[in-house]
């Protein structure tokens, strides 16, 4: 902790503003005196420092690893704003009023005014922790969160690292394989932007406030599912989460994913992301193909013994696969074949000519049902129906599990300064050798101080 404090004191000379200086001072005093209130104060300065180019947070943060769920794991990260991604995202938000009407529900189902999200895309330079999250929502001090705020950021390169993986299963033609590995990163960027910025942010929940005032025109709005007037809504204190605990989050994730694929067919949106002509068409196709493939791989996250889904997004993608499967005109099929290794394999064949004519309207109709019922506080039975894994799909799951790829390794870069003072990014191979080289580069000499701390620690626990 002493070394930590010394480094932080050195960092305090390079801050961008007063809040960052105050934050670091509190970290130092927290780490050198063991003071939690000082760490809380550091967190207060941190949330007040809005949208910095370099973002960093450090301390005993998440309690996931503690069996008691109390003790925070020591972690710290440094990330920088991804300016080009953030500018595409803000253009999309600026044009939200133009794109929201493309969604399959009428204006009366939209908010009167689009609430501009505070959404920054950061790239991690270094995240020191047992696991690297794709997004963060901290500090965890409840009192500060409730009364003073928190930060919510997406860690873009954690997500995109996944799409650089060249290993692709379950795709048919070499053409699909090629398009997929080349374009899935770009397609994913479009999908994430649409999911977060227009997906979760579109629409309004019909509600009545404590004075009995409705946020919609009760005698004018017609329920598209029944053709009757709206007869249910949220009362004060009720939210989608409180009313529909177990399916609440997957249902909403499914809505955002559907909005993503649905709007990814819009050429103007693709243009905002910088794609036109044949490339734009291919990205659209790869985005839908990715969704189908994700719906199949989702079966890894289903436990047949308990008949339960373990991950909200994966359940949502499986539902999308099932909805498309139910289309009167087939748009894709999953073929059971023998792989080149002689073992069972699966191939997805998606007819790209039917993407806009058949698949898009099918998703639009489903999305409309899904959302308009959410607005009226009615859950759709069809969500549970589509989430129920069929016997056929349990058989597909065996192949999916057998072909499951080993967990990816994240090997993070180091930064160092050159003789002329410029910063150098040193990257390592994503392999065990890469991890070892990265440690050797970080700790080139035997560190007797660290070693003796480690030995004392072992000795201490043996005595306990
Ligand atoms: Zn989401």
Automatic annotation (TrEMBL):
A Pfam entry, by short name: Peptidase_M49
Catalytic activity: Release of an N-terminal dipeptide from a peptide comprising four or more residues, with broad specificity. Also acts on dipeptidyl 2-naphthylamides
Tree of life domain: Eukaryota
The family this protein is said to belong to: Belongs to the peptidase M49 family.
Keyword Transferase recorded: no
Subcellular location field: Cytoplasm
MF-aspect GO terms: aminopeptidase activity; dipeptidyl-peptidase activity; metal ion binding; metallopeptidase activity
UniProt keyword annotation of Cytoplasm present: yes
GO biological process, one term: proteolysis
E.C. no: 3.4.14.4
PANTHER family documented for this protein: DIPEPTIDYL PEPTIDASE 3 (PTHR23422:SF11), DIPEPTIDYL PEPTIDASE III-RELATED (PTHR23422)
Top-level class of the enzyme under EC nomenclature: hydrolase
Protein name: Dipeptidyl peptidase 3
Keyword terms, alphabetized: Aminopeptidase, Cytoplasm, Hydrolase, Metal-binding, Metalloprotease, Protease, Zinc
Names of required cofactors: Zn(2+)
Phylogenetic placement of the source organism: Eukaryota, Metazoa, Porifera, Demospongiae, Heteroscleromorpha
Record's GO cellular component terms: cytoplasm
């Amino acid at each position: 902790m002493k070394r930590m404090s010394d480094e932080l004191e050195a960092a305090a000379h390079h801050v961008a503003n007063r809040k960052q200086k105050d934050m670091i001072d509190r970290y130092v005093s927290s780490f050198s005196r063991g003071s939690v209130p000082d760490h809380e104060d550091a967190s207060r300065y941190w949330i007040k420092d809005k949208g910095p180019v370099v973002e960093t947070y450090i301390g005993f943060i998440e309690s996931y690893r503690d069996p008691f769920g109390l003790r925070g794991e020591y972690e710290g990260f440094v990330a920088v704003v991804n300016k080009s991604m953030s500018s595409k995202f803000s253009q999309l938000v600026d044009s939200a009023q133009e794109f929201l009407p493309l969604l399959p529900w009428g204006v009366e189902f939209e908010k009167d005014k689009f609430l501009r999200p505070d959404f920054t895309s950061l790239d991690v330079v270094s995240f020191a922790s047992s696991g690297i999250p794709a997004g963060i929502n901290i500090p965890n001090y409840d009192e500060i969160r409730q009364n003073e705020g928190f930060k919510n950021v997406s860690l873009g390169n954690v997500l995109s690292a996944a799409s650089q993986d060249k290993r692709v299963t379950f795709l048919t033609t070499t053409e699909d394989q090629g398009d997929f590995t080349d374009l899935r990163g770009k397609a994913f960027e479009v999908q994430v932007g649409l999911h977060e910025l227009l997906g979760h942010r579109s629409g309004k929940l019909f509600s009545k406030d404590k004075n009995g005032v409705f946020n919609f025109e009760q005698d004018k709005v017609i329920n598209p599912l029944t053709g009757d007037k709206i007869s249910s809504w949220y009362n004060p204190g009720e939210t989608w989460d409180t009313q529909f605990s177990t399916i609440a989050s997957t249902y909403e994730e499914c809505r955002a994913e559907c909005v993503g694929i649905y709007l990814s067919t819009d050429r103007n949106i693709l243009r905002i992301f910088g794609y036109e002509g044949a490339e734009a068409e291919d990205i659209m196709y790869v985005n839908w193909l990715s969704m189908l493939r994700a719906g199949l791989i989702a079966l890894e996250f289903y436990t047949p013994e308990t008949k339960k889904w373990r991950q909200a997004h994966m359940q949502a993608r499986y539902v999308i696969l099932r909805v498309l499967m139910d289309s009167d005109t087939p748009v894709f099929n999953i073929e059971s074949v023998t792989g080149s290794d002689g073992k069972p394999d699966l191939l997805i064949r998606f007819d790209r000519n039917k993407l806009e004519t058949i698949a898009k309207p099918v998703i639009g109709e489903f999305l409309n049902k899904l959302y308009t019922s959410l607005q009226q506080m009615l859950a759709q039975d069809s969500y549970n129906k589509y989430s129920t894994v069929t016997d056929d799909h349990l058989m597909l799951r065996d192949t999916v599990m057998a072909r499951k790829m080993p967990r990816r390794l994240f090997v993070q870069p180091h930064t160092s300064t050159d003789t002329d003072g410029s910063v150098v990014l040193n990257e390592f191979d994503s392999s065990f050798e890469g991890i070892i080289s990265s440690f050797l580069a970080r700790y080139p000499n035997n560190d007797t101080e660290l070693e003796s701390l480690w030995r004392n620690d072992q000795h201490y626990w043996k005595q306990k």
